[in-house]
Write a structure and sequence with these properties.
By secondary structure, the protein is an alpha/beta fold. It is built from 13 helices and six strands. The two termini are 29 Å apart.
């Protein structure tokens, strides 16, 4: 039963078609008006050409719609995010250019996610930093995975509308981990949480941390926009506090939840590889990724 659910969920994961339910949610969550949507897309496209502040690799309707949705269809804000997105890609091409997409399964259980996408939570992603062994692969690969997840996830209209919730589980973090967090790495990770990507971050929750949190968070906090602080929550080891923000039905058992529909990033990438189509391959290659058979 569980495996059957996952197979169905992953087939839907690569579906880029709009559906009536998604359009209804887009009106509620993103201020999207079907009557004026096309006009807003044209306005954003004209602004790109008029200002010349960025040269995105795509300017088609579906691509520009991602940026409008995450900025509530306020065209100047969508344009500003698009500029940041293009600048981020131009500044850090090593995070995607010639990166073997299927090879990113190496990170195993460091990332995991829930396949239950609810309006109150969106896509739940869990980053278990302490599960990473710095001797196995560089910290840049963690950023590469985060970037690939963002690019793949935002292809799905439902994810553009619902956004996502992130749990950062710091159990097991040591000074070896902290030593890898240069300001550049910290900046890149913050950018992937919606600062420079067309993803809607609903909230971010830090749990299971120790005295090293001060060192960990000191590196990050200077890059976090002031308006984002209202969506960042610190729970320590208090799962009841976490449950006040995230329904236990969405959480795995280790966090006091009842959800079984969680997969590691390794499983997720393998399923994406299985169910992908020619359009997926083209879009990811256009982004710079290597797609090997």
């Amino acid at each position: 039963m569980y495996e059957c659910f996952l197979e169905i969920a992953f087939e839907a994961e690569l579906n880029t078609n709009e559906d009536p339910e998604c359009l209804a949610l887009a009106f509620e969550q993103c201020n999207e008006n079907p009557v004026t949507r096309d006009a807003s897309i044209r306005e954003l496209r004209e602004l790109i050409y008029e200002r010349g502040e960025c040269k995105p690799h795509r300017t088609d309707d579906a691509f520009l719609l991602r940026f409008l949705r995450v900025r509530d269809f306020i065209v100047p804000r969508a344009h500003k995010l698009l500029v940041r997105y293009c600048n981020f890609r131009a500044e850090y091409p090593h995070l995607y250019k010639d990166v073997d997409l299927w090879g990113l399964t190496k990170v195993k259980d460091v990332y995991e996610g829930s396949m239950l996408d609810r309006p109150d939570v969106g896509r739940l992603t869990i980053f278990r930093f302490g599960m990473w062994d710095p001797s196995e692969f560089p910290v840049e690969d963690l950023v590469r995975v985060g970037m690939a997840m963002a690019e793949i996830g935002v292809r799905q209209p439902k994810m553009q509308v619902l956004g996502g919730t992130v749990i950062i589980d710091l159990e097991g973090i040591t000074l070896r981990h902290i030593a890898t967090l240069t300001p550049t790495i910290a900046y890149q990770m913050v950018c992937l949480l919606g600062v420079a990507t067309p993803g809607r971050l609903n909230s971010c929750h830090l749990i299971n941390y120790n005295w090293l949190l001060n060192s960990f968070f000191y590196i990050y906090k200077r890059f976090i926009p002031q308006k984002a602080w209202g969506r960042i929550f610190f729970h320590g080891h208090d799962l009841k506090s976490l449950h006040q923000h995230i329904d236990p039905e969405c959480l795995p058992k280790r966090y006091g939840g009842t959800c079984r529909n969680h997969v590691s990033i390794g499983q997720w990438i393998q399923k994406i590889k299985k169910y992908r189509d020619a359009q997926f391959d083209k879009e990811m290659k256009d982004l710079g990724y290597l797609i090997k058979e």
